[in-house]
């Protein structure tokens, strides 16, 4: 049962099905051709030897005398074999007068008692051997001529001719199968290229596949894929625009709510004031969440065009923007960067990506520690300390709203998800690692990505 299942699994391949089908068809065709060739050769051999017996009978008839007196040989003569050729015993003839007063036959030919004369072509069996015969009367009607051929004489020639015809076909069989396999594999090369292009395509790449110089079947598949990609892109853009529009529309009422709560803080009732402060904190978190959702929606939309970006300047600008929050925790920055790190890209995307990475480092670094930022050969490394009991799952860091067990730290869980989406848009690579009590973010581009 397992063998049948394994065979069935392999037979699901279109390429294998075509190859097996072509091989079976070729083998069946070769078998049918061999059978047809054998029977056709057999028929032609019989026709050839029948014609030869007719000519031999006519030749013998022309040599016989008309008058009985001219026959000087013994009355009933048997001609002995003159050589040891293997075919001599397979050919025989018998000549006799109508009145049976004279006859002559080769050794091995039956006399008229064992085999009565029969005119025309006939077949008979003597001693379990099949013989072919041809009988005719001479034009003067005085003699009966009977020629005989053993079937093995013809059979050997049939077999030789059939084998000589079929051997090239059988010898070419491996070559034909290999050519079939090679042709089928070559025909599927376009599909393999298409599959490889799909595997290596970015998740946000909805551009259509080119259809030039391709096989008809591949063009049909590409047309269907292009149609599908166009629909997916339209749906994705609509969803992202809806998310962005919804987040944008929420900003105004949230800002108004925040302002109203701040105005209510003037209340002198300590209990009411405490409740309003808690509401204000929740509102502030909601505002940051909406801002993060808006930024995530923008990060997932493909940008067109690029310009030179000085990454070193962008890093220093982000550090300046984060300085106040870092100073409150006693965090310092150790920056080892050249003045210029140029890269052709999108400045706004780099700015947001670096802001999220550095903001994440400031939030999760213990107080009075240092965040180091270094550069080497198209690779930017941002390294910060974390608490010894800091728990995180590296493979889940870029999931939306994932924050590990650090729920006491302010944030929405969208920062590194935004970083990952921006990295895809910028065609760069972002890696996260944990080494002892350090959390490391490496940003690579160019040949390192």
UniProtKB/TrEMBL annotation:
Alphabetical list of SMART domains matching this protein: HATPase_c, HisKA
Domain spans labelled Histidine kinase: 245-435
Gene3D superfamilies given in the database record: 1.10.287.130, Histidine kinase-like ATPase, C-terminal domain (3.30.565.10), Sensor protein qsec (1.20.5.1040)
Transmembrane segments: 18-39
InterPro entries documented for this protein: HATPase_C_sf (IPR036890), HATPase_dom (IPR003594), His_kinase_dom (IPR005467), HisK_dim/P_dom (IPR003661), HisK_dim/P_sf (IPR036097), TCS_sensor_his_kinase (IPR050428)
Catalytic activity: ATP + protein L-histidine = ADP + protein N-phospho-L-histidine
GO cellular component, one term: plasma membrane
Primary site of residence: membrane
Pfam families found in the cross-reference section: HATPase_c (PF02518), HisKA (PF00512)
Protein name: histidine kinase
Organism: Pseudidiomarina gelatinasegens
């Amino acid at each position: 049962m397992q063998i049948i299942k394994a065979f069935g699994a392999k037979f699901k391949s279109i390429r294998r099905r075509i190859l097996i089908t072509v091989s079976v068809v070729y083998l069946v065709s070769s078998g049918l051709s061999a059978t047809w060739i054998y029977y056709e050769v057999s028929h032609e051999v019989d026709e050839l030897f029948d014609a030869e017996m007719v000519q031999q009978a006519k030749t013998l008839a022309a040599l016989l005398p008309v008058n009985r007196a001219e026959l000087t040989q013994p009355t009933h003569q048997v001609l002995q074999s003159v050589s040891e050729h293997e075919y001599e015993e397979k050919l025989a003839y018998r000549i006799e007068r109508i009145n049976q007063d004279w006859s002559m036959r080769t050794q091995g030919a039956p006399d008229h008692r064992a085999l009565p004369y029969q005119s025309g072509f006939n077949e008979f069996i003597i001693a379990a051997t099949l013989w072919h015969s041809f009988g005719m009367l001479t034009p003067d009607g005085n003699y009966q001529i009977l020629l005989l051929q053993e079937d093995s004489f013809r059979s050997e020639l049939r077999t030789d001719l059939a084998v000589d015809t079929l051997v090239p076909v059988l010898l070419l069989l491996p070559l034909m199968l290999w050519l079939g396999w090679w042709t089928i594999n070559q025909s599927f090369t376009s599909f393999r290229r298409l599959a490889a292009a799909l595997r290596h395509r970015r998740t946000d790449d909805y551009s259509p596949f080119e259809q030039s110089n391709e096989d008809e079947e591949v063009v049909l598949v590409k047309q269907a894929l292009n149609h599908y990609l166009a629909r997916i892109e339209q749906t994705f853009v609509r969803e992202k625009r809806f998310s962005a529009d919804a987040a944008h529309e929420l900003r105004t009422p949230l800002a108004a709510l925040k302002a109203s709560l701040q105005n209510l803080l003037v209340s002198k009732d300590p209990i009411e004031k405490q409740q309003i402060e808690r509401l204000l904190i929740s509102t502030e978190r909601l505002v940051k969440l909406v801002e993060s959702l808006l930024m995530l929606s923008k990060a997932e939309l493909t940008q067109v065009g690029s310009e030179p970006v000085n990454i070193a300047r962008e890093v220093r600008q982000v550090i300046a923007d984060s300085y106040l929050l870092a100073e409150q925790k006693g965090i310092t920055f150790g920056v080892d960067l050249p003045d210029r790190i140029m890269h052709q890209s999108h400045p706004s995307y780099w700015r947001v990506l670096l802001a999220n990475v550095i903001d994440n480092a400031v939030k999760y670094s213990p107080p009075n520690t240092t965040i180091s930022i270094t550069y080497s050969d198209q690779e930017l490394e941002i390294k910060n300390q974390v608490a010894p009991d800091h728990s995180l799952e590296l493979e889940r860091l870029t999931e939306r709203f994932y924050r590990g067990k650090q729920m006491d730290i302010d944030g929405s869980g969208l920062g590194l998800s935004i970083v990952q989406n921006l990295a895809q848009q910028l065609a760069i690579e972002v890696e996260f690692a944990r080494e002892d009590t350090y959390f490391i973010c490496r940003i690579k581009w160019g040949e390192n990505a």
